[in-house]
Amino acid sequence: MHSFYIDSPIDGAAMLPPEEARHALKVLRLRPGDAVCAMDGAGRRWRGKIGGIDGGSVRVNLLEQLPDNEAPVRLTVYEGLPKADKLDFIAQKLTELGAAALAPVRMARCVAKLDARDGEKRRERLEKIAREAAKQCGRGMPLRVAAPMDWRKALEAMAAHDLLLIPWEAAEGTRLKDIFTLNPDARDIGIVVGPEGGITADEIDDMAAAGGRCVTLGPRILRTETAAVVSAALVMQLWGDV
């Protein structure tokens, strides 16, 4: 069943936004009576069907509201700005796993550099990727993507979480399941993943002062995009619904 974002529902029906309507008609060639999943982008989902087509406009009849499928834990991933299109992959997979937010961070060893204008373009691109990923996986609420932030601003955000986790190649002994044993009721969790060059000792000290806990992901060093996805999957397996 194909998924679509809808405008605000009125009396059990809603219109597809123009871009969604074009996709439904021109690409998927849907017709009245075809079953669809309708999403409002704020977490609500409905089982519906195409109710009417008028030129390029598409009305969806909302038949039944579907259960909420958001994770019981709010997970934010702080990702040191990586090179090339790695953030695209990370945004897509975090959406599928149920993470709440992705925050790109300018860290000391980041190779990628973005000014404010380029950063906003990247954020818009990542939001679009997250919305498409949410449709594909049937998630009612897409990943929220922040504009790239500097280190000090990121630290302020990190300190606000119930639990701040730092996968780090130099960490020894402490694993995520060890942290879970001590903090099973955490419901707002942040994960900090370093860029290709890794996290500096000074950054580790800053995060420790903000309450961060270093954890190991095993004896092998993971690429930044792998570490982001693996960390999120493990957190969702322990605290969430995976």
Number of domains: 2
* N-to-C CA distance: 22 Å
How many DSSP E strands?
11
Secondary-structure element series: EEHEEEEHEHEHEHEHEH
- What's the overall geometry? elongated
Q: Which segments are poorly predicted (pLDDT under 50) over 5 or more consecutive residues?
A: none
Task: Give the rounded overall mean pLDDT.
Answer: 94
How would you classify the helix and strand content by structural class?
Answer: alpha/beta
Strands of the widest sheet, in order across it, are 8-7-6-10-9-11
User: According to CATH, what is the topology of the largest domain?
Assistant: Alpha/beta knot
CATH homologous group name of the largest domain: SPOUT methyltransferase, trefoil knot domain
CATH class of the largest domain: Alpha Beta
Quote the beta fraction: 15-25%
> Which value, in Å, is the CA radius of gyration?
20 Å
Question: With helices defined by DSSP (H or I, 4 residues minimum), what is the helix count?
Answer: 7
Largest sheet: 6 strands, parallel
Q: What is the name of the CATH architecture of the largest domain?
A: 3-Layer(aba) Sandwich
- Which percent range fits the helix content? 25-40%
Per-chain topology:
Layout: E1 2-5, E2 13-15, H1 18-27, E3 35-39, E4 45-54, E5 57-65, E6 74-80, H2 86-97, E7 101-105, H3 116-137, E8 144-145, H4 151-158, E9 163-167, H5 176-182, E10 188-193, H6 201-209, E11 212-215, H7 224-238
